[in-house]
Amino acid sequence: MMTHPISVAALSDRLLRCAQTLLLAPALLAFSTANAQVHAHSEGDYTVRSSLVASTALPEVLLKANSFDAAPDKALLNVVVLKGQGERREPVAARVEAKMRDLLGMTHRIDMRAVQDNNRVSYFGMVDHVPSEAMTFEIEATPQGSEEPLNLSYQDRLVR
What we know:
single chain, alpha+beta, 6-stranded antiparallel β-sheet, 2 helices
């Protein structure tokens, strides 16, 4: 049996990253459900769901673990694509693109990143905004293995 030496620091770093990933998705989904309105659109066997959470409502450990900043003018956009019906819905991988249009009509692209946890995937992106301003979100999600995108458009506002 061959062994490969690994430093305690490298092992600790790997374990920390695994723990952060395991903590992130369920905690963010819980916060998004408790502190935000969920928007959804279904077509066929797929549903795209999205919510917006004030960054100041997220626990510090999650912010640090994922290099998110908490500020009154920052929010976290959460997107998940589900396959199935009713209780049998499961998150699936997708190509997710998101944009936000502010009251001035300026469109801002939102960099989305996938976060995987226990073979489930969610997509998160930070949004800069003016507090209490109404924002229009446009999300296009194409589930892996599908050529047809799901489009979700909605207005949201984070009130202090």
